[in-house]
Amino acid sequence: MSKKGKKHKRNQKPAGSEIIRQCVIYVQSMAAFTAGFEVDPSGNFDHAGSGKGQLGRKHLSHADHALRRLVALSPACLERRRPLTPPELLAKAGVLSAMWAQEGGKTRSCEPFETAYVRFFAREVEDSMRAQARDAV
Which of 72, 84, 100, 109 has the most crowded CB, counting CB atoms within 10 A? Predict the structure, then answer.
């Protein structure tokens, strides 16, 4: 509590979508992981890597956890699902962009949760477009 008897808001989650929250966690974690490589002087990623005891491990773990949460939160596999909101779709598109920015944007093999994320995202965009078309009629 502060001197005036009010609770600090530091530990409270911002209001809004859990999907957007996980998107932010993913992108920020990947940015932190990637940034470490820019200053690792070893040339072999001795410090920035994701192996045991390396500093990038925590950031990559947070990104992986956020991606798994995004797959679990996806309405793509639920019947009578509500389409994602435009801000949620925009946030998820940002995650997809961050995913492809890895490896310099070159084509690469996806990890299983990345594949699931891409498949679900395509379905979520389709659901959103169908809902917009229905509402327009």
Answer: 84
